[in-house]
Amino acid sequence: MCVRLICTIMVVLVAVHQATAKASMDQIEKTAQTLRNTCTTKSNVDPGLVAGIQKGEFPDDRTLKCYSHCVMKSMRTFKNGRIDVDMMIKQMDMLMPPDMAAPLKESSVACGSAPPAGDDCETCYQFVKCSYEKDPNHFFFP
């Protein structure tokens, strides 16, 4: 009886740990790469422009703007013409280590409060650009 109780407790502890575990950076990067590939194809953007985002390069390019929209829409962080900061924060809390999530949440809240640009691609692009400008050291975008 005691052994069965201990085994049950161990199973519950493992299940709780799995449910609260954050994704590793390797897992986050693999997911980002999949999203990057999908949205690069859908938006027909030059992959070099996508790579430039990580370096703070934000040219006035319609396909790159629509790439940012594709990523955010796929992540469910953009809907009804607006940045969904609440969803963004939920995803960060669920998937990212706290030391990485905290600065990202801060810039997301600041940049997500900007009014929509009237064009979904432009709104997403301005959000991504703002996020980079707010904190280039912690910037992350697929």
C-alpha-based Rg, rounded:
18 Å
Which residue ranges are poorly predicted, with pLDDT under 50 across at least 5 consecutive positions?
1-20
- Topology as H/E string? HHHHEEHHH
CATH architecture type: Orthogonal Bundle
Q: What class do helices, strands and sheet pairing give?
A: mainly alpha
CATH fold title: Recoverin, domain 1
**In what order do the strands lie side by side in the largest sheet?**
1-2
Q: What is the count of distinct domains?
A: 1
Count of β-strands: 2
Q: What is the CATH domain class?
A: Mainly Alpha
Biggest beta sheet summary:
2 strands, antiparallel
The span between the termini is 51 Å
How would you describe this protein?
The structure is a single chain. With 142 residues, this protein is mainly alpha-helical. It has a single domain, classed as Recoverin, domain 1 (Orthogonal Bundle). The chain is built from seven helices and two strands. A two-stranded antiparallel sheet has the order 1-2. A hairpin with a 2-residue loop joins strand 1 (78-79) and strand 2. Helix 2 packs across helix 4 (62-74), helix 4 packs across helix 7 and helix 6 (98-112) crosses helix 7 (120-134). The longest helix is centred in the first third of the chain and has 19 residues, at 2-20. It is globular and about 35 Å long. Residues 1-21 form the signal peptide. Belongs to the PBP/GOBP family. It comes from Ooceraea biroi (Clonal raider ant). One of its GO terms (biological process) is olfactory behavior. It is found in: Secreted.
